Amino acid sequence: MGAKTSGWGTAASPILHGDLVIINASVESESLIALDKATGKEKWRAPGIKESWNTPILVKVGDKTEIVLAIFGKVLGFDPATGDQLWSSATDIGWYMVPSIVAGDGVVYCIGGRGTGGALAVRCGGRGDVTASHRLWTLKKGSNVSSPILHGAHIYWAHENEGILYCVEAKTGEVVYEKRLERAGQFYASPVLADGKLYYTTRGGRTYVVAAEPSFDLLATNELGRVGTFNASPAVAGGQLFLRSDKTLFCIGAK
Q1: Which of helix, strand or coil describes residue 67?
Q2: Is residue 187 within 8 Å of residue 194, measured between CB atoms?
Q3: What is the pLDDT of residue 187?
């Protein structure tokens, strides 16, 4: 997808849409690229994808679909058939963008930035610069690494360094709770949602289990010990939780 590299490598995952494989190649060539999934032939390439580490998402807007991606300073919407840029919105977040966007009912929710970072909501379906017309709210709280979860009427995420868990009202951007966990360490893995619970795993192998509700309720804290560094997000399948460090793979479930 290009010859450039960086110390972190590629962070974004490929996605499928119809007969296309769509790849955020910001690191390799500052491009968003679509390939024919049967042949690998390039179908289109959108330039100008700078300082973007997040996986693109597909958003339904009426009877159409848009690709949405966050780059430095902007959230962008594209036509997946042609790669044409449809719209852009300023983020007011002054750093590169790592967390992936989440979406519901035609609205995308984006967090990012270093330090306190920021968050915003944008309604899809616009054309051109939609900052004034389609950006619904902004917030000076975010995260630099892990992605958020949209569940019901609220968005949940963890700050990567401060050990803070956030719950924000999706419609307004109002902070419902902001809870600092004592000595939590860093969160690089994204949280997962299962059985009405949110699972937040730290790089040190500690998992906080929190009720997926707009009132903070810590249900459990589980330790895996010194078994490597946990950067990968947990996965849930068949009633089991899978956790991977750089040394060990764990499968956790009822006996």
Answers
A1: strand
A2: no
A3: 97
